[in-house]
Design a protein that fits this description.
This protein has 240 residues and is α/β, with parallel strands linked by helices. The protein has one domain: Rossmann fold (3-Layer(aba) Sandwich). The protein is 27% helix and 25% strand. Strands 2-1-3-4-9-8-7-5-6 form a nine-stranded mixed β-sheet, sandwiched between helices. α1 (16-23) links the parallel β1 and β2. The longest helix has 19 residues, at 210-228. Its EC number is 3.4.-.-.
């Protein structure tokens, strides 16, 4: 099995996702889009697409010319029923491809915050855990994409997670986070730390209990297992 990972910044790598993929026997092709002359891979020659976060906006095609090609690649993957997971900017890309408006959020969110699961008892959708604390690090937000089902929300950002079809999920949160990846993001985004009420300090971010990392990584485990099973959840906490 093969997974393609689209990476948009050197300090926003796949984190826990890479460990999970290797444990499951996947080979990985990481496409470093921020490097010059990077060629996009053949998306039809893969079993899974991961679209990571990044500091740019989906509207920045003039600054990042590869964005147009990337959007076409993501759409081609989804149209060809390839399981796809978008993280933060990756989720925004998927949402924009399917008609959602991407705009600045009223408040930047940087920190560990609770999100609320949205239940759909009559639909076979992925279920985000209730009362879940996750890492949010974003300044843009997305409306719901065409055909999307809302999976999670919070008070500041009504759309945190969505599902399209049986095997496409977008997460505004960074549940693939590891302590090493978090430190890299802090080091490279030092200018974002202000006194805004929804921006936690580096000390607050790094002092999160180990359970936060474990629970978020478990969410990634469950999401990937779910989309690879084409909508048939394997984890007992996510029954149909």
């Amino acid at each position: 099995m093969k997974a393609i990972i689209l990476q948009h910044a050197s300090h926003e790598g796949p984190g826990y996702i890479l460990s999970w993929l290797h444990e499951q026997g996947f080979t990985t092709d990481i496409c470093f889009l921020y490097k010059s002359k990077t060629e996009l891979p053949d998306i039809l020659n893969t079993n899974l697409l991961i679209v990571l976060g990044g500091p740019m906006s989906v509207h920045d095609e003039a600054t990042y010319p590869w964005l147009k090609k990337e959007k076409k690649l993501i759409k081609k993957a989804i149209e060809n029923n390839i399981p796809t997971l978008g993280i933060c900017f990756g989720a925004q890309l998927i949402a924009s491809i399917y008609g959602a408006e991407i705009k600045s959020a009223p408040q930047k969110e940087i920190g560990w915050f609770p999100i609320q699961a949205v239940e759909h008892p009559k639909k076979k959708t992925f279920r985000v855990p209730q009362n879940f604390n996750t890492l949010l690090w974003h300044q843009d937000k997305f409306d719901m994409p065409e055909g999307g089902v809302l999976l999670a929300s919070n008070d500041m950002c009504p759309n945190i997670a969505f599902q399209i079809n049986k095997n496409v999920i977008g997460l505004q949160c960074h549940s693939h986070i590891t302590p090493y990846l978090l430190q890299a993001m802090i080091n490279n985004y030092s200018s974002v730390f202000t006194n805004d009420p929804y921006i936690q300090s580096p000390q607050q971010l790094l002092s999160a209990p180990t359970s936060f990392f474990i629970q978020n990584n478990q969410l990634i485990d469950d999401v990937l297992s779910y989309i690879l099973a084409k909508g048939k959840p394997k984890h007992p906490s996510h029954p149909e």
